[in-house]
Amino acid sequence: MDRWSIYIDIEGFSAIYEQNSQALLSLGALMEGIYIIGSKCFSNSPNRIFAHQLGDGFVIVGEFGVETLEVPLSIAILLMRFVLKAGGTAKSAISEGSFADVKGCYPNCIRENSGENGVIRLGSGLMTIFPVMGTALIISHKVLSLSPSGSLLVLEKSLLSRIPKEAQFIDIFDSDLLAIDWLHTSFPSLIDLVAQTGLLPPDALNMESLLKKYLAGNELSSAWKRNTRKALNLE
Question: What is the spatial distance between Cα 75 and Cα 59, in angstroms, rounded to a whole number?
């Protein structure tokens, strides 16, 4: 069975990076959230998670395949809310696929000189390599790139039967994708994850107020605002 994956990155990172510290604060919140979720809730086999940074985002992969997608959906929703709490927004996609160590396919000079941390000396310089690859990364990134602009949590419609019945979502017009309402959706696994991690207070903050503040305080395209409001039932 294919492993589940989440591709999640910070919205508007490149646009705000040179303006203020919000880009790094948002990325830091994403990192912190992944660390706490992984170390507190999914630290042991067969439920471990594996996270790899890719610029201003991460790919997060489960250890094994699953029948339902409650776990990745819970993780993605909590991370998007935690980034919002820090003053930023994120976008994410959930998918499935293979994921494996591919270092054995690299040239001999790379394999022979690579340390455990994936760092290769280039004289006094350094090369870092990405040691894993697979369709779990490729498909989730593709789903994200095919989705409209906005702070969206998307997945393919073919996965609809495997998400909790309580999940609120909309069809993304003229596509094979759904957008989950990550502000308002709630189901038992998500509630448990919030309680175990302590990442948000019991009332989960006023997510709508935080997002409306973000929409009002940032230069965003009309399409970005429209898509976000529609997906999160804020219209």
Answer: 12
Q: Per-residue pLDDT tens for 120-132?
A: 999 999 998 887 8
139 φ, ψ to 5°?
Answer: -70, -45
The span from the CA of 227 to the CA of 164, in Å, is 23
Mean pLDDT of 184-206: 88
Q: What is the DSSP letter of 176?
A: S
pTM, full prediction? 0.92
- Give how far Cα 219 sits from Cα of 16, 19, 131, 145, Å: 10, 12, 37, 21
Q: Are 92 and 79 in contact (CB under 8 A)?
A: yes
Q: Are 50 and 34 in contact (CB under 8 A)?
A: no
Neighbours of 53 (CB within 10 A): 14
